[in-house]
């Protein structure tokens, strides 16, 4: 059974930083592309970044490019998201997701995501 557990969310002021972690089990993590998506109140879920199984390719949506960094530690079956220069519009529930990487694009695997962790950016 695949299990993904996010942590590291919280309340932070605009301009601040947070580091999210996602520990996985039941997944061949070392051979699986991964990513993060977020869902803000009243908005659709949005994939914001992805990383190949080896970490040699990453993707970021324009709204987080240059501020967020995705990384992974295959020895620990753990995915990370470093978020810097946070803005109020980054407020959302953030979830990690297993993905398929094909022809340069990332495709989330249905059902292969965690419960999420709340990130609130507010002064």
Give the gist of this structure.
With 123 residues, the protein is mostly beta strands.
Give an overview in words.
The protein has strands at residues 3-7, 10-12, 18-25, 33-39, 46-51, 58-60, 68-73, 78-83, 92-102, 105-113, 117-121. It is mostly beta strands and 123 residues long. Strands 2, 4, 5, 6, 9, 10 and 11 form a seven-stranded mixed beta sheet that branches. Strand 7 and strand 8 form a beta hairpin. The chain is globular, with a radius of gyration of 13 Å. The mean pLDDT is 96.
Keywords:
123 residues; mainly beta; seven-stranded mixed β-sheet; four-stranded antiparallel β-sheet; 0% helix; 56% strand; globular
Tell me the layout of helices and strands.
Elements lengths: L2 E5 L2 E3 L5 E8 L7 E7 L6 E6 L6 E3 L7 E6 L4 E6 L8 E11 L2 E9 L3 E5 L2
Parallel strand pairs: 2-11
Antiparallel strand pairs: 1-3, 3-8, 4-5, 4-9, 5-6, 7-8, 9-10, 9-11
């Amino acid at each position: 059974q695949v299990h993904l557990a996010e942590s590291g969310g919280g309340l932070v002021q605009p301009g601040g930083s947070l580091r999210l972690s996602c520990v996985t089990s039941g997944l061949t993590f070392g051979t699986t592309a991964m990513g993060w998506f977020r869902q803000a109140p009243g908005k659709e879920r949005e994939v914001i970044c992805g990383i190949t199984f080896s970490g040699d390719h990453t993707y970021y949506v324009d709204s987080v490019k240059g501020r967020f960094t995705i990384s992974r530690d295959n020895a620990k079956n753990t995915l990370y998201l470093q978020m810097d220069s946070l803005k109020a519009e980054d407020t959302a529930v953030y979830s990690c997701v297993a993905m398929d990487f094909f022809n340069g694009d990332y495709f989330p695997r249905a059902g292969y995501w965690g419960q999420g962790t709340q990130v609130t950016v507010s002064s």
